[in-house]
């Protein structure tokens, strides 16, 4: 889960838009779904800006997101006055111009753009709006496949960027269970280790997991010395790494 | 968001560029109001470069159209706010909110201006 906390004023809109667009893309939403989420979040944040607090004393709100189980989940929390969605009129989208009311469009758009919408209020927690966008089911198949990436080179400052790029390409195509095959890696430096840490973090943020397989002794030693054998899932072979993914089910 | 404004013979043409949200919608509203204040009530909004619009922007549009149509030169001829060049994403928002049937929407600016 990642979050930002911002003051509920109009300057927040551009920042929340950039934040949530990047998040949706990382989670694997396509262009249209990303745009839908962006608009829904804009409407949610606009509501907080316009209604939660007194305009002269805007409080904060926290925008968070999670990505797992083929769902992109966004929450907006504020500690302003209680919001009761049942008091918002549902716009009659068929009524002609003369009778058309302007209220309630924001909430209405949120409910049309997202797959699930929930409002909760508690005195301690404040207002919590939860919105969910489902990822298409063909991406579910991608996520359930184990992707094995052989690395046929040393991993150092020079080669690490290429490794990151290769893995990120797989991630953007939906891969969530990744095994890195180290059998042909003769050398790993701290730059390489850093790249692996970032890859691992990114995968975990998206609800996935990284496993390292078939490390040569001198490469394994780097993990041992740095204490990172505790942090990474390291397996003697690719077969065992694959099996470890199935066992988690 | 950027706005360009051309005063044609009968019609005022506004190009809306970029994003209309709670922060920028007031600026669009102000421009439209200033055109009304000059006694001119026929406006074409060219949305070809509009990337994004949220409900505060939609509100400005509907209020503008209502106000423009309230002004009548004769029983047959009055004011209006008409739309030219609706990009696909914006059309989607219009369809979702019923706005596609609330406005006259034209495929290009010449047609829209000529419709008055």
Describe the protein's architecture and organization.
Chain A has 249 residues and is of the alpha/beta class. Chain A has two domains: 2-134, Histidine kinase-like ATPase, C-terminal domain (Heat Shock Protein 90, 2-Layer Sandwich); 139-247, 2-Layer Sandwich (Transcription Regulator spoIIAA). Chain A is 41% helix and 23% strand. Chain A is built from eight helices and nine strands. Chain A has helices at residues 12-27, 31-52, 105-113, 138-144, 160-172, 190-205, 217-226, 238-247, and strands at residues 2-7, 60-68, 71-78, 116-122, 126-134, 146-150, 177-181, 209-213, 233-235. The radius of gyration of chain A is 23 Å and the shape is elongated. Chain A starts with a strand and ends with a helix. By secondary structure, chain B is of the alpha/beta class. Chain B has a single domain (2-114), classed as STAS domain (Transcription Regulator spoIIAA, 2-Layer Sandwich). In chain B, strands 1, 2, 3, 4, 5 and 6 form a six-stranded mixed sheet that branches. Chain B is globular, with a radius of gyration of 13 Å. The N and C termini of chain B lie far apart (27 Å). The mean pLDDT of chain B is 93. Chain A binds chain B through residues 10-11, 13-14, 35, 38-39, 42-43, 46, 49-50, 91-98, 100, 102, 105-106, 108-109, 112-113, and chain B through 21-23, 52, 54-56, 58-59, 62-63, 65-66, 69, 89, 93, 96-98, 101-102.
